[in-house]
């Protein structure tokens, strides 16, 4: 809808939340009895000349007649003398029913329009987005990128931040670089655990030994028996040969006796 067709002045076409109004001549004498007359001044952009208050004022009637009329009207809603006055604009349908349209508050003689809930939300959201965008732009101006080092910060253009960064760097102790990060160590441990689950280590096989004899001792005994078999057999054959040798005469000192055996035989025995 075109505001020009409604006959609105350029001042009213502006957002009423951005404007204010006051009359310096009224401020020293402003009180609850004349606050409605102060609000009904012709220079006040918040006052509608077609309201019922203007009709009652022109007829020099009491404001109590507004309850019996229908249409737009202004009523005093709250008074906190001498600093704060709240006036409500509403559309009256009957003596007991009225729809609020807007609220105006007068602080120290200056009139403002109270914002609605949607305007408050829009203002807060726009303010938040503006500050975030400003902070992001400023932070982006200090970022630097190098192919080998990656991203870093350079605050040399801002002296205050550069001095603060130097001071913090001097106070902080040098950090020893680790050969690997915590993430890398945890990742390697996880991979090793998966490999152990997929390929478990073989368990040592236990041999059953019912006789209770140590296997090493048994092996040594077997080795001794197997290794000495030839020698024992040969020795046995030597004993048999010695016994079968003929003796010279019946004397105990003959050649065929055990004491007169050849040197080689004695060493083997």
From TrEMBL:
Biased composition (Low complexity): 211-226
Pfam families: Med6 (PF04934)
Keyword Transcription regulation: yes
GO molecular function: transcription coregulator activity
Chain residue ranges for the region called Disordered: 202-269
GO cellular component: mediator complex; nucleoplasm
Annotated GO biological process: regulation of transcription by RNA polymerase II
Function: Component of the Mediator complex, a coactivator involved in the regulated transcription of nearly all RNA polymerase II-dependent genes. Mediator functions as a bridge to convey information from gene-specific regulatory proteins to the basal RNA polymerase II transcription machinery. Mediator is recruited to promoters by direct interactions with regulatory proteins and serves as a scaffold for the assembly of a functional preinitiation complex with RNA polymerase II and the general transcription factors.
Family of the protein in this entry: Belongs to the Mediator complex subunit 6 family.
Protein name, entry field: Mediator of RNA polymerase II transcription subunit 6
